[in-house]
Amino acid sequence: MPEQKTNSDTRDRILDVAERLFMENGYEATSMRMITGAAEVNLAAVNYHFGCKEALLRDVFRRRLGWLNDNRLQALDRLEAQAGGGALKPSQILEAFFGTLLRMGEDKTLGGMTFLRLLGRTLTEPAEFIRTFFAGEYAEVIDRYKQALYRALPDVPQAEIVWRLHFMLGAMSYAIAGTDVLRVVTGVEVDDLAGERPVQEDDTIRARRLAQRLMPFLLGGLRAPLPQFDEPAANQKELPSKAAGESRPGT
Nearest-CA neighbor of 39 among 57, 73, 12? Predict the structure, then answer.
């Protein structure tokens, strides 16, 4: 039993260190030597528990995504049971899907903001192997939530719902990846830009504020008017050309 506990402690320590370093440096820039040094283990220990760096990254995500996927499905199950077979409100669906993820940022036992930033960073610059991994991990959850959105928005074409889900996932990924780009673009700290007092590195407050900003934005995007596409040029009547020398509006 003591040996099993030691192995478990070593494995968890490697995962914790790898999660932080992958978040700070990205997958490619994080070496196994960096991980073993910070975790105070030798390479043999990492190889014993994970085999290779790719497998280590997958396990970093797997221990968090298992909880996330289960809780997303449970949240949707509860809402659908309460609705008694009726369609859910779009706001309920978004809260169950995105809200469940954002609440992880408030809980350090679930990875806190370190995991959220790692997830956002990885989704915005995924290696091919992790893209395939995410597709498998998310398949059931994404399908359930798509079906819920189809029922909630029967007048919206399903293709448009998929596009909007794509946009919402992109906005969420970029938001949780961190604020470095926003700081570069604006030249000021994000707290100053928002007219707020700086938060003393309290991830719970940061995660809560992020959710309070992001959730209304996502819901607004989902509820936006449907696009009015221009007709293809081939289907448009040819417009008469303007007389030579006639100025165009605004020129």
Answer: 12
Buried b (16+ CB within 10 A) or exposed e, 117-133: bbbbbbbeeeeeebeeb
30, 230, 236, 246, 250 from 241: Cα distances, Å: 60, 20, 14, 10, 17
Q: For 194-228, what is each residue's pLDDT tens digit?
A: 445 555 557 888 889 889 999 999 999 999 999 99
Distance, CA of 23 to chain centre: 13
Q: What are phi and psi of 194, to 5 degrees?
A: -85, 0
Q: Give pLDDT tens digits for 32-63.
A: 999 999 999 999 999 999 999 999 999 999 99
Angstrom distance (rounded) from CA 62 to CA 48: 18
Cα(201)–Cα(198) distance, rounded to whole angstroms?
8
Enter the DSSP assignment of 167.
H
Rounding to the nearest 10 degrees, give the CA dihedral for residues 217, 222, 224, 227: 130
pLDDT digits (tens, 9 = 90+) for 152-197: 999 999 999 999 999 999 999 988 887 555 555 555 555 544 445 5
User: Which CB contacts under 8 angstroms, 24+ apart, belong to 201-208?
Assistant: 203/105, 203/106, 203/108, 203/112, 203/113, 204/105, 204/106, 206/105, 206/113, 207/102, 207/103, 207/104, 207/105, 207/106, 207/112, 207/113, 207/116, 208/106
